UniProtKB/TrEMBL annotation, chain B:
GO cellular-component term (any): plasma membrane
Protein name, UniProt field: Quinol oxidase subunit 3
Subcellular location: Cell membrane
GO annotation (BP), single: aerobic electron transport chain
Protein's organism: Robertmurraya siralis
UniProt lineage: Bacteria, Bacillati, Bacillota, Bacilli, Bacillales
Keywords, ordered alphabetically: Cell membrane, Membrane, Oxidoreductase, Transmembrane, Transmembrane helix
Classification via InterPro entries: Cyt_c/ubiquinol_Oxase_su3 (IPR024791), Cyt_c_oxidase-like_su3 (IPR000298), Cyt_c_oxidase_su3-like_sf (IPR035973), Cyt_c_oxidase_su3_a-hlx (IPR013833), QoxC (IPR014246), Ubiquinol_oxase_su3_dom (IPR033946)
Enzyme Commission designation: 1.10.3.-
TM helices/strands, residue ranges: 20-45, 65-84, 91-111, 131-161, 173-196
TrEMBL record, chain C:
Ranges where the Cytochrome oxidase subunit I profile domain occurs: 36-554
Lineage, highest ranks first: Bacteria, Bacillati, Bacillota, Bacilli, Bacillales
Descriptive protein name: Quinol oxidase subunit 1
InterPro entries according to UniProt: Cyt_c_oxase-like_su1_dom, Cyt_c_oxase-like_su1_sf, Cyt_C_Oxase_1, Cyt_c_Oxase_su1_BS, QoxB
Main location class: membrane
GO CC aspect terms: plasma membrane; respiratory chain complex
Species name: Robertmurraya siralis
Family: Belongs to the heme-copper respiratory oxidase family.
Length: 327, 201, 658
C-alpha cells in the first residue's frame, strides 16, 4: 500500500528534472541574464536531486525493513538514544551542500546588478518602466518616445530598465530574458536585460494588484539594430504627442491596448521621484460592498498648486466626466 | 494550583498562583517590549518623511516635554516607594504613594494631551505626513498605556481599601508597579530618540 | 454616519446568495436543534463557560475543522475557476476575494486553532499538570480567536470580503486602491484573533516553565511539549509585530494616516517588512508543534525512544532563531541590493540544516524499530517524503538569484503548499487519530481512516505537483484566468482533478468522525496505543482534574518506564487528596462577543458605536479585576469514585496496540 505513494514520490523529482529538456520558459533562456539564473537553478537541481534520492532511499529502506510483520511481533526494539557520530555527519553534509549552493548564489546576485559579462563595452539603452493599473508604460528618454503595453529593444544590446510605479507595487518579469523586480511608487529599481536574438517575448506583472491583474501583460520585441533604429525614427515622425491631460487619463484604472507617443511623460513627472505628485483615484476603485471613507491627499495631482493652475488653466476643463468606474 | 501559602516569601510571592501571575506578567512585558520596539522601528524608518509638512523643529515644545519627563520619572520613583511601603506592610503609606503616583501620571497625561492639541493647532495631524503618523502613534500608544495604567491602579486601590493587604492584593499592586516602571523606561527611549534627536535634527 | 443599507449585504452573485441562505438555514437549524434537545443549559455550563484546557482544546479543534471546510471550499472554487483556460465561472473580483480568504482562513483560522487546540489538550497532560497556568485567560484566548474568526467569516456576505491577498500588500490594501471596507475586516478581525494567540503564547510559556510535574526537568520534557514551548516563545516574539502592523493598517485605512500609503510620504515596503517579520516566524509557530507531533507518534509506533533527543531540541532552538532572520526572502525582488539578498539567502538555506537533522533523527528512530502502521503513523510517514519535496524547493527558492525566476509564480505556491500541508495538515490529522481516544474515549475507525489517508495524500500530490511545472513555465499566482495559447491547460486540469480527490479525502475524514461517534468501541483503556508519555497514564477521556495524584518522572518516556517497571500505575486510597479546581466563567465568552461587536462596528467605520461597544470590553476587564473567585475543591470521595471507574473496568478492555 505504501508502495504506490512511494513510487509516485520517487518519480516526481525525475519529472522535475525533465523540465530541463522540455521547453519550460525558465529552462529556455533567451539571453545571458536569464541564462545565468538557469545555470544556477540547474546546479541547485543536481544537489536537490541528490538529497531527494538519498533521503527517499533511506526512508523506503527503513520503513520497509522495520515494518511490523506477523513474524516479528515478539521483536522488542533496542533502547537507543542517538549517535553523536551519525548526528555530526548529517549536520556536516547539509552544511557543505548549503555552502555549495551559497557561493554561486552570491556570485549571481552580484552579477545580476551589473551589465552582463561580455557586454561591458556596448552602450546600454535606458528604458523607464512605469507600471500603472493595469498597464505598462515604457519611456525611452534618449529617443524621446513612449509606448504602452509593448516595448521594442535591439537584440544583443544591454537594456537598463529603470522601474517605478504610478500606482500599486507590481513586479516586472520577462521570464525568457531574466528574473523579475518590483516596481514601486516614489522608488526606483533597476535591472539589465539582454535578448540574444530578435524575437518576441512575453512579459507580465507577477505581483497581484487588483481586478485587472491577470491582463497586465506586455510584449518585448527584440529587433535587429537597424530595424530598431528604423522603428524609433518612424515613431518620432508619425506618433502623436502625449499631453499631460491624456496622461492623467491614461493612469486611471483601465485596460488599454498598445499606444505609441513621440514624447515621454518624464517631461512633467517621474514617479520615481520621492516628491512627485500622487496620481491616485480612489473613487474609481469602488467595487461592490460597503464603501468606507476616502481621504483627501494633499499631494494628489488634482490639488494643483497655484502656479500649476496658472500654467494650465486653458486646458483645465477638458474631460473629467465620463464613467470610468470599475465594475 | 494549590493554595498553599509560603510565609517565608514576600507577600506577593506567597501563593503558587501569584508566582505564576508575576512570571506571566514579566513575559507579557516581553511582548510589550517587542511591540514598542516595532513602533520605534517604524518611527525610525519614517521620521524624516515630512512630505512637505512640519518637521520636528517646527512643532516640538521642549520645555513642556521636559516637565512631562520629570513628572513621569518622579511617578516611577513614588511607585517604588509605594512598593517599599507594601513590603513594610504599611497599607496607608502604600495607598498614599500610589495616589501620588497616579496624580503625577495624570499630570503627565494632561500635558501630553495639551501637546497633541498644540500640534493639531499647528496643522500637524496624523494625516499630514508619514513622520507625524508615526510620531502620533508612538506617543499615543505610550499615552494609552499610561491611561490604562491609571484606570487599572484605581481599581487596585479600591481593592486595597476594601480588602487590605492580602497576597492577592499585594500581587496586583506589585504587577501594576512593574507595569508603571516599564512605561517609564519606554518614555526614556521616547524622550531620547524622538525629542532630543528631533531637536538636534 | 448614515448607514448605507443597500451596500450592507452583498447581493447579485448566485454563489453568495446560496451561501447566505445556507448560513441562515444552518443557524436556524442549530438553534432549533439545541432548543429541541433542551441542550442550551448544557452548552452554556459545560462548554461555553468552561475553563478546562481539554474542552477548550476540543472547541479549538472543532472550530479548526469548520474553518478547514470554509477554506477548502474557497480552494475548490479557485481550482474550478482555473480548471480550464478563460473559464467564466468566477470574475476577477470574486476570485481575488476567494484567494484572500482562503489564505487567511487556512493559516490563521484553520492551522493555528488546530495546533493550539492540540497543544491545549496535550501539553498539560504531558507535563503532568492539572491545567494551564491561567485557565480563565485560556478561555479568553479561545473566545477572542473565535470572535475574530467569525467576524472575518461574515465578510463575504456582509459588507464585502477582503480582496488584497492574505499578505495584503500596500498600497493595494490601502484606501487609495481599496476603498471598500473589505480590508477593514482583515485589519480588525486578525487583530482580535491575534491578541488571543498572544495570550495563549504567554499562557503556555508560563505553564511549561512552572507547572511541570516533579522530576521533569527541561531536558526530560516530551518533544511535543518542547516544540509547543518554543512555538509559544516565537508567538511572544512575533505576534506583537503583527499587532503593530495591523494597528498601523487600521490607522491608514480608517483615519487617513500615512504609514504605508503612496501619498504623504508613506512607505509600502515597510508593510512588507513588518508583515513578514511576523509572517515568517508564524510559519514556524505552525510547523514546530507539528514536528513535535511527529516525534511523539513516530517514537510510539516504532516502539523506540526518540533518536537524538538533544540534537532535536537544539535544532528546534536553531530553527526558532533562524526563523526571525529570514523574512527578506519573501521579497528578494524588492531591490534591496545583492549584499542584503546574499545574507538572507544564507540564513534561509541554513534552516535546511536543523530541519535535515530532524528528518534523519526521525528516520533513525524508526530504524531497528517495529513500525506499526496505524493511521497516525501513516500520516507521519507520508509527511517525510512530501515535506522533503517542500524542503528542497524551499532551498531553491531561498537562493536569492534563482528566486527572481520563481517569485510570485505557481512554483512558489506549490512549494508552500508542500511545506504547510505535510508540515501542518498531515500533522493535525496524525494528532487527531493519535489523541482522539484521549479526548473522547474512543478511537477513529482505522479502515475509513485509510480511505481518508490515501485520497488525501494522492489528491494533495496531484493538486500541487503540477503547479511546480506551471510556475517554471511562467504561470503566476493569483491570476484568475489564463489564455488557451499559454499551454497551461492540461496541468491546470490535473491540478483541479487532484483537488477533487483531496476534497473526497476530507469528506472521508468527516464521515469517519460521524461513524466513530455512532459505532466506535467505547470500552478502551487509557492507553490504547501502548504509548510512552504521561498523557496516556490517565483515563480516556481524561477526568476533569487530569491526574488524581501528580505523577513523578525521572527520564524521557516516563509512562513507558512506569509500564516496564510496573511502578506508579495504581493509586492507593490514602494517596487521594482534595483537588483544587478553577471555577467556570462566562466572562471570556462575553468578552469575545464584546470584541466581536466592537470590531464589527469598527469595520464599518461606525466609530461611535464601536466606542460604546469598547466600553463593554473595559467593563469586562474591571469586572475581572474585582473577581475574587477562588475556585472549588473536588472532594476525595468523588475522586475515588471517578478513579475506580476507569481503573477497574469490568469485562474486556481493548488495547489497539500490544
Amino acid at each position: 500500500m505504501k508502495k504506490g505513494l512511494f513510487a509516485f514520490l520517487t518519480t516526481a523529482p525525475l519529472l522535475f528534472l525533465s523540465g530541463c529538456e522540455s521547453k519550460l520558459v525558465v529552462f529556455d533562456p533567451q539571453g545571458p541574464v536569464a541564462r545565468s539564473i538557469t545555470e544556477l537553478i540547474n546546479w541547485s537541481l543536481i544537489w536537490m536531486l541528490l538529497v531527494v534520492v538519498v533521503v527517499f532511499g533511506l526512508f523506503g529502506y527503513i520503513v520497509w525493513k522495520y515494518r511490523e510483520k506477523k513474524d516479528n511481533l515478539d521483536y522488542e526494539p533496542p533502547d537507543e538514544h542517538g549517535s553523536t557520530v551519525l548526528e555530526i555527519i548529517w549536520t556536516a553534509i547539509p552544511i557543505l551542500i548549503v555552502v555549495a549552493l551559497t557561493i554561486p548564489t552570491v556570485k549571481t546576485l552580484y552579477a545580476l546588478e551589473e551589465v552582463p559579462q561580455g557586454y561591458e563595452d556596448k552602450e546600454p539603452i535606458t528604458i523607464h518602466v512605469t507600471s500603472a493599473d493595469w498597464k505598462w508604460i515604457f519611456s525611452y528618454p534618449e529617443e524621446g518616445i513612449e509606448t504602452v503595453n509593448y516595448v521594442n529593444i535591439p537584440a544583443d544590446t544591454p537594456i537598463l530598465f529603470k522601474l517605478t510605479s504610478a500606482s500599486t507595487m507590481q513586479s516586472f518579469w520577462v521570464p525568457a530574458l531574466g528574473g523579475q523586480k518590483y516596481t514601486m511608487g516614489k522608488m526606483e529599481t533597476e535591472m539589465y536585460l539582454i535578448a540574444d536574438y530578435p524575437g518576441s517575448y512575453e512579459g507580465q506583472n507577477t505581483n497581484f494588484n487588483g481586478r485587472g491583474y491577470a491582463d497586465m501583460k506586455f510584449e518585448v520585441l527584440a529587433q535587429t539594430r537597424s530595424e530598431y533604429d528604423k522603428w524609433v525614427q518612424e515613431v518620432k515622425e508619425t506618433a502623436p504627442k502625449l499631453t499631460e491631460e491624456e496622461y492623467e487619463e491614461l493612469l486611471k484604472p483601465t485596460h488599454l491596448g498598445r499606444l505609441t507617443f513621440s514624447n515621454t511623460h518624464l517631461d512633467w513627472v517621474n514617479h520615481a521621484d520621492h516628491n512627485s505628485k500622487t496620481y491616485t483615484h480612489p473613487e474609481l476603485y469602488r467595487g461592490h460592498g460597503y464603501q468606507g471613507k476616502i481621504f483627501e491627499e494633499e499631494d494628489n495631482y488634482r490639488n494643483k498648486t497655484s502656479d500649476d493652475i496658472d500654467e494650465h488653466d486653458h486646458q483645465e476643463d477638458t474631460e473629467h466626466g465620463g464613467d470610468h468606474s470599475g465594475h | 494550583m494549590s493554595s498553599k501559602i509560603d510565609y517565608s516569601l514576600p507577600l506577593e510571592y506567597q501563593t503558587e498562583q501569584n508566582r505564576l501571575n508575576i512570571l506571566g506578567f514579566w513575559i507579557f512585558l516581553g511582548a510589550e517590549i517587542v511591540l514598542f520596539a516595532t513602533l520605534f522601528g517604524v518611527y525610525g524608518v519614517l521620521y524624516q518623511r515630512y512630505a512637505g509638512g512640519p518637521t520636528h523643529q517646527d512643532i516640538i515644545m521642549i520645555k513642556d516635554v521636559l516637565i512631562q519627563t520629570v513628572l513621569l520619572l518622579t511617578s516611577s520613583f513614588t511607585m517604588g516607594i509605594a512598593i517599599f511601603e507594601m513590603r513594610r506592610q504599611q497599607l496607608k503609606g502604600l495607598i498614599f504613594w500610589l495616589v501620588i503616583t497616579l496624580l503625577l501620571g495624570a499630570g503627565f497625561l494632561f500635558m501630553e494631551i495639551n501637546e497633541f492639541i498644540h500640534y493639531v493647532h499647528l496643522g500637524a495631524t496624523m494625516q499630514t505626513s508619514a513622520f507625524l503618523s508615526s510620531l502620533f502613534v508612538l506617543l499615543g500608544t505610550h499615552g494609552a498605556h499610561v491611561t490604562f495604567g491609571i484606570i487599572w491602579a484605581i481599581m487596585v486601590i479600591i481593592q486595597l481599601l476594601r480588602r487590605g493587604l492580602t497576597p492577592t492584593t499585594a500581587r496586583k499592586t506589585f504587577i501594576i508597579g512593574l507595569y508603571w516602571h516599564f512605561l517609564d523606561v519606554v518614555w526614556i527611549f521616547i524622550f531620547t530618540f524622538v525629542y532630543l534627536k528631533g531637536m538636534v535634527g | 454616519m448614515g448607514i448605507k443599507w443597500d451596500e450592507f449585504f452583498i447581493t447579485g452573485d448566485p454563489l453568495i446568495l446560496g451561501s447566505q441562505i445556507a448560513i441562515v438555514l444552518t443557524m436556524v437549524g442549530i438553534v432549533a436543534g439545541v432548543t429541541y434537545l433542551k441542550k442550551w443549559k448544557w452548552l452554556w455550563s459545560e462548554w461555553i463557560t468552561t475553563v478546562d484546557h481539554k474542552r477548550i482544546g476540543i472547541m479549538y479543534i472543532i472550530s479548526g475543522v469548520l474553518m478547514f471546510f470554509r477554506g477548502g471550499m474557497d480552494g475548490l472554487l479557485m481550482k474550478a475557476q482555473t480548471s480550464r483556460p478563460e473559464m467564466e465561472f468566477l470574475d476577477a473580483q470574486h476570485y481575488n476575494e476567494i484567494f484572500t480568504t482562503h489564505g487567511v482562513i487556512m493559516i490563521l483560522f484553520m492551522a493555528m486553532p488546530m495546533l493550539i487546540g492540540i497543544m491545549n489538550v496535550v501539553v498539560p497532560l504531558q507535563i503532568g499538570a492539572r491545567d494551564v497556568a491561567f485557565p480563565q485567560l485560556n478561555a479568553l484566548s479561545f473566545w477572542l480567536f473565535f470572535g475574530g474568526a467569525m467576524l472575518f467569516n461574515i465578510s463575504f456576505v456582509i459588507g464585502g470580503s477582503p480582496d488584497a491577498g492574505w499578505t495584503s500588500y500596500f498600497p493595494l490594501a490601502g484606501k487609495e486602491f481599496s476603498p471598500g471596507i473589505g480590508n477593514n475586516y482583515y485589519a480588525v478581525a486578525l487583530q482580535i484573533a491575534g491578541i488571543g494567540t498572544l495570550l495563549s503564547g504567554i499562557n503556555f510559556v508560563v505553564t511549561i516553565l512552572k507547572m511541570r510535574t516533579k522530576g521533569m526537568t527541561l531536558m526530560k520534557m516530551p518533544m511535543f511539549t518542547w516544540t509547543s514551548f518554543i512555538a509559544s516563545v516565537i508567538i511572544i516574539a512575533a505576534f506583537p509585530i503583527f499587532t503593530v502592523a495591523l494597528a498601523l493598517m487600521t490607522f491608514d485605512r480608517l483615519y487617513g494616516a500615512h504609514f504605508f500609503t503612496l501619498s504623504g510620504g508613506g512607505l509600502d515596503m515597510l508593510w512588507a517588512n513588518l508583515f513578514w517579520l511576523w509572517g515568517h516566524p508564524e510559519v514556524y509557530i505552525l510547523v514546530l508543534p507539528a514536528f513535535g507531533i511527529y516525534s511523539e507518534i513516530i517514537s510510539t509506533f516504532s516502539r523506540k525512544t526518540l533518536f537524538g533527543y538533544k540534537s532535536m531540541v537544539l535544532s528546534i532552538l536553531i530553527i526558532a532563531l533562524l526563523s526571525m532572520v529570514v523574512w527578506v526572502h519573501h521579497f528578494y525582488t524588492m531591490g534591496s541590493g545583492p549584499a542584503v539578498n546574499s545574507i538572507f539567502s544564507i540564513t534561509t538555506m541554513a534552516i535546511a540544516v536543523p530541519t535535515g537533522i530532524k528528518i534523519f533523527n526521525w528516520l533513525f528512530t524508526m530504524r531497528k524499530g517495529r513500525i506499526k502502521m496505524t493511521n497516525a503513523m501513516l500520516w507521519s510517514l507520508a509527511f517525510v517524503p512530501c515535506f522533503i519535496i517542500g524542503g528542497v524547493t524551499g532551498v531553491m527558492l531561498g537562493m536569492g538569484a534563482a528566486d527572481y525566476q520563481y517569485h510570485n509564480t505557481l512554483f512558489l505556491v506549490a512549494h508552500f503548499h508542500y511545506t504547510i500541508i505535510p508540515g501542518v495538515v498531515f500533522a493535525v490529522f496524525a494528532a487527531l487519530y493519535y489523541w482522539w481516544p484521549k479526548m473522547f474515549g474512543f478511537t477513529l475507525n482505522e479502515k475509513i481512516g485509510r480511505w481518508h489517508f490515501w485520497l488525501f495524500v494522492i489528491g494533495f500530490n496531484a493538486t500541487f505537483m503540477p503547479m511546480f511545472f506551471l510556475g517554471l513555465d511562467g504561470a503566476v499566482r493569483r491570476s484568475y484566468t489564463y489564455s488557451v495559447e499559454s499551454g497551461f491547460a492540461p496541468l491546470f486540469l490535473v491540478s483541479a482533478l487532484g483537488s477533487v480527490i483531496l476534497a473526497l479525502g476530507f469528506i472521508a475524514f468527516c464521515y469517519n468522525i460521524y461513524w466513530s461517534i455512532r459505532h466506535a468501541d467505547r470500552n478502551i483503556t487509557g492507553d490504547p496505543w501502548n504509548a510512552r508519555t504521561l498523557e496516556w497514564a490517565t483515563a480516556s477521556p481524561v477526568q476533569p482534574y487530569n491526574f488524581a495524584k501528580l505523577p513523578e518522572v525521572d527520564g524521557l518516556d516516563p509512562f513507558w518506564k512506569m509500564k516496564k517497571n510496573n511502578q506508579g500505575l495504581t493509586i492507593k486510597d490514602s494517596e487521594i487528596k482534595e483537588i483544587h479546581m478553577p471555577s467556570n466563567s462566562g466572562l471570556p465568552f462575553i468578552m469575545g462577543v464584546a470584541f466581536g461587536v466592537a470590531g464589527f462596528f469598527l469595520v464599518f467605520e461606525w466609530h461611535i458605536a464601536a466606542a460604546i461597544a469598547a466600553i463593554g470590553i473595559i467593563a469586562g476587564l474591571i469586572y475581572r479585576s474585582f473577581d475574587y473567585d477562588e475556585g472549588y475543591h473536588i472532594p476525595v470521595d468523588e475522586i475515588k469514585e471517578t478513579e475506580s471507574k476507569w481503573r477497574n473496568v469490568e469485562g474486556e478492555v481493548h488495547n489497539y496496540v500490544k
